[in-house]
Amino acid sequence: MGGQALEIIEYSTRTALAEGVSAALAAALTQDLNTTGRSTLAVAGGTTPAPIFDLLSQEQLDWANVEVMASDERWVPTGNERSNAKLIRAHLLQGPAANAGFIPFYQEGLTPEQGAAHLSARLQNGPSVILLGMGEDMHTASLFPATEGLEAGLAADAPACVVMRPDSQPEARISLSARLINAAGAKHLAIFGEGKRDALQRAATISPEKAPISAVLPNLKVHWAK
Ligand SMILES: O=C1O[C@H](COP(=O)(O)O)[C@@H](O)[C@H](O)[C@H]1O
């Protein structure tokens, strides 16, 4: 496998990364709003993006015409500490950005499969702007290596959303498929630490089945800080 060229924007601090990524997302949203009057933003959950959300939420954008969703969700109620929706509500849908719409993935009373089917019907166009995260195991969104459901999530004709039940995780997940992620006009990845940078560089030489992040590398803008 030849490997894919990676352009990594390095920042001297995590704060500088948050400023840079927030500005890049705001610029991509502004471009959409100026050209079509609307935009859709998907964002990672987990431990990395809260400082980016805090800054982005304060941008003076036409948030009423922006719809926000997670790149993936743990199948837990919104009040649960592990809910990505809870993180997004607490850090992104605040201040001016409180005017944005929000598309929740978790639906009380539905199985993950039912939830994914509903979302796939609703999200045919997918997000225009996306902020991804990545684990050291090279998962992105909730496309986890060597997990049932990954083949469907990587397929060229994948539905918008797939269900994943990674052995390493305590609950089922719903993830945007690689097809939908790659359809976004602006794709950003924010990662911290040497371990994730090394993993990303390794992933560029490995198949998506073993390193799902490698399925979304084309046109991906990578932001890294120690
Ligand atoms: O489980 C998840 O993991 C990834 C990476 O999270 P981090 O805590 O290592 O930053 C995240 O991008 C994804 O949205 C989340 O659900």
TrEMBL record:
Entry keyword annotation includes Membrane: no
Pathway: Carbohydrate degradation; pentose phosphate pathway; D-ribulose 5-phosphate from D-glucose 6-phosphate (oxidative stage): step 2/3
Matching SUPFAM superfamilies: NagB/RpiA/CoA transferase-like
InterPro entries recorded: 6-phosphogluconolactonase_DevB, 6PGL, Glc/Gal-6P_isomerase, NagB/RpiA_transferase-like
Record flagged with keyword Zinc-finger: no
Single GO term (MF): 6-phosphogluconolactonase activity
Keywords assigned by UniProt, alphabetized: Hydrolase
Similarity section: Belongs to the glucosamine/galactosamine-6-phosphate isomerase family. 6-phosphogluconolactonase subfamily.
Protein function: Hydrolysis of 6-phosphogluconolactone to 6-phosphogluconate.
Descriptive protein name: 6-phosphogluconolactonase
Classification of source organism: Bacteria, Pseudomonadati, Pseudomonadota, Alphaproteobacteria, Rhodobacterales
Gene this chain is encoded by: pgl
